[in-house]
Design a protein that fits this description.
3 copies of one chain form a homotrimer.
Chain A (H helix, E strand, L loop, with lengths): L1 E5 L2 H11 L5 E7 L2 E7 L5 E8 L5 E4 L3 E6 H8 L7 E6 L5 E7 L5 E8 L17 E6 H12 L4 E6 L3 E8 L2 E8 L12 E4 L3 E6 H7 L8 E6 L5 E7 L3 E7 L4 H7 L1
Antiparallel strand pairs in A: 1-5, 1-7, 2-3, 2-6, 3-4, 4-18, 7-8, 8-9, 10-14, 10-16, 11-12, 11-15, 12-13, 16-17, 17-18
């Protein structure tokens, strides 16, 4: 039997907002340690990894490990029916073919039960190696979202460069060009408003803006985003889920030779 | 001559919002007692009844009873031009072919006159018998609207069951099922936030969600909605118009035999 | 070399909002006195004139007069990337083929550079003669916008009449007619909420509502609008740009004979 009760039910709503655009169907791997999900987007270009640790739940019981195959759009439809203040409980019987989402208002006046059918989904677990990155930038998530959106009106790709001074985003298109420089800033009153650069060596990589735009659907999850960059490695874009998990996105950089061939 | 001056002009704007989706054209029956309207929706499935008592108007003069045939979408277009604070006066001459809506800002700086053409509309007055219902539920109108909207993402019909504990809404669909239980709650601070169950015998009836969704366009009219249910009778969904009237919707339940045939 | 630094960068964003619907491409004429633009809309019915005086800029340097041909939609796309609080600097090299927009957040943390390609645009400068108008009305710009929008739901043209008492807007259409009277009002607390009539002789002119609707895209620029009317002359609809400029729209009245022919 599996049962997990989350007082901050809204975090689960935001997790779905953050993932359903990229992933249509996925297996949630449930164990005593928590809930994990890892999936490529439907075009097999980017990867999403979700982790929710069991200690973040008010109550978490998982008698044996299992995979919960779900259509994320249908799951999102049901979670949209939970109120912002609702406590959400996820329940599944061993060997059952449904998962139940229970939504309770804080005063227990309204109790809703939504039952979603499980699916058989073949998934490959990709095993992402832990790496040390050349540059790690932590910046306000709203700022990152805005830059990605703005540059998307100018071009299709963005060049991201990190130097000691800051992180620079550049795009080119038919109507002209744009570059946006965010300077290191450790003096903002709130930690989440700071821009922090941790750099071993300068990096300069190019990415498709449309995938970054999908990643920024996670902006509501956290006021800060962490971006990790290394030459020839996929960028990692990470949003914390409160203090008990994360949503991470991976996207391979565009290789210059490929680009030249394409032109 | 007919002239009716409504200081809370916004209530008239909300009445149109609440009715124009279901009814395209209708006769407003005007008498010294007030304004009445009764009409089937265009698919002849649900019925809308509106009552505005003359004592709710600052000034109400009606020399002789008459029918005012109006296109509700056009009337709504004109009422949308009234400000939220505007005083609205409705005027019609005996035997004229137009009705005039006069909008005055509280300080009289802007005075607008909108003249709408009258129409000849054949209407049957249906005479709704007064009945005692098995169950009457009074609940927050926003809560009802939300449940109807949420269940509409799951299925096409809703089963509404009333017991002593509360009112339960259930729906089924391709992706799964949902049921929402609202418990009796007489302790909310504001009366309008209470959920009150008045039940002679338990009832369990099934309705088409799309009509209920149209009924909830009246949510802005009142913070509370009253739902009256009896076996084999149309449900009544009622919203008060301030303290001088109401909008009531009637919808026949789905009969199980019919449903089974349909399957 | 041309360089102009505007602390209230948002005013430039609003100027583009106010003009890009009517004008697709135009020459910004730059001189030591400031920036001017004058262009007919694409259907050659209305005229837009923009003036931004150099003294409104924190820094303004223009070594020699020149024309800056720009696509206003592309310029607007770039200015939309400036934040509300951003300082905007416009820069162009002599003989260059681009203009650069520099956006700086007040704390200098984010600095963005957008480079837009210049265009060769043939423009005729039309020379608008200064005239004394029969009637000048100053009214809240939001009120004017609202009336234009409301009457647009009733008809295609508006008759504007000014008398000593106020300004009256009338429209007719298939569903009925409307007229809105705004009375002179010199007692409003804030000057911008006053409606002031300055009249030498009564006027009554008819205009196409769709152009007036485009003019009201300038509403965000200023809380007040000034409307100048004379028989057989184009109406002038003017919005101030802070205390250093204006956007003015000109639209010829419909001539009654023409209208009769048209029917």
């Amino acid at each position: 039997m599996f049962e997990a009760r989350l007082v901050q039910g809204i975090m689960l709503k935001k997790v779905l907002e953050a993932t359903k655009e990229l992933i249509q169907e996925a297996n949630f791997e449930v164990s005593a340690a928590g809930i994990n999900l890892q999936a490529m987007d439907s075009s097999h270009v980017s990867l999403v990894a979700l982790n929710l640790r069991s200690d973040g739940f008010e109550h978490f019981r998982c008698d044996r490990n299992f995979s919960m195959g779900l259509n994320l759009n249908n799951m999102d439809k049901m979670l949209k029916c939970a109120g912002k203040e609702d406590v959400i409980t996820i329940k599944a019987e061993d060997g059952g073919d449904t998962v139940t989402f229970l939504f309770e208002t804080p005063n227990q006046e309204r109790v809703s039960e939504f039952e979603l059918k499980l699916m058989d989904i073949t998934s490959e677990n990709l095993g992402i190696p832990e790496t040390e990155y050349s540059a790690t930038v932590r910046m306000p998530s709203g700022e990152f979202q805005r830059i990605v959106k703005d540059l998307g009106t100018i071009g299709d790709t963005v060049e991201i460069g990190v130097s000691k001074d800051g992180i620079k985003f550049s795009a080119n298109g038919d109507i002209g060009s744009a570059n946006v420089m965010c300077r290191q800033n450790t003096h903002a009153d709130k930690e989440d408003e700071q821009t922090l650069i941790d750099m071993n060596e300068p990096v300069n990589l190019t990415f498709a803006l449309r995938y970054l735009a999908s990643f920024t659907k996670a902006t509501a999850l956290s006021p800060a985003v962490t971006i990790k960059l290394s030459k020839e490695l996929p960028v990692v874009v990470e949003y914390k889920v409160a203090d008990f998990g994360f949503v991470r996105y991976y996207l391979a950089p565009k290789i210059e030779d490929e680009e030249m061939e394409g032109e």
